[in-house]
Amino acid sequence: MHTRVVTLFWAPGAPHVEAAHAWLSKRGLAPRLRDVSSDRQALADLLLLAGAPTVPSLVVDNEVAIGFDPARWDEALGGAAKSLPELDTDPEADISSRRTTR
After folding, report:
1. 45 — phi, psi (to 5°)?
2. Which of 4, 11, 79, 97 is most buried (most C-beta within 10 Å)?
3. Contacts of 93 (CB under 8 A, 6+ apart)
4. 102 vs 84: CA distance, rounded Å
5. pLDDT tens for residues 4-43?
6. Buried-exposed string 65-79: b where 16+ CB fall within 10 A, e elsewhere
7. d(Cα 97, Cα 70) in Å, to the nearest integer?
8. What is the pLDDT of residue 3?
9. Distance between terminal CA atoms of the chain?
10. Domain extents for the chain?
11. Dist CA 85 CA 8 (whole Å)
């Protein structure tokens, strides 16, 4: 079974970021977090993938879902929720305190 790569592009204080992360967390997903406000490469990658610096944006493997749209995110994720590990952090915590990976 192929484990899908799920990446959440975000920025502190951006509208819908907390709701998006909570939505993913409730589905047992631990996305790779990329903060476009402090990581220039994350911003460049988001611009390349999405064509705009819109956050939150979700990338599942190579499929991009721009903005927080639960129906679209469900479609992009498909069966990913069953193949990824659960978050080991509090889903209610402020996302800006979480470590961003590259």
Report:
1. -65, -45
2. 11
3. none
4. 18
5. 789 999 999 988 999 999 999 998 888 999 999 999 999 9
6. bbbbeeeebeebbee
7. 24
8. 72
9. 24
10. 16-84
11. 15
Q: Please tell me whether residue 25 adopts helix, strand or coil conformation.
A: helix
Compute the average pLDDT of residues 68-81.
81
Token pair listed for 35: 């903060």
Six-digit token string for 46: 């988001």
Number of Cβ within a 10 Å radius of residue 101? 12
High-pLDDT (> 90) share of the chain, %:
56
Q: How many whole angstroms separate alpha carbon 69 and alpha carbon 56?
A: 10
* Domain at 16-84: CATH architecture: 3-Layer(aba) Sandwich (3.40)
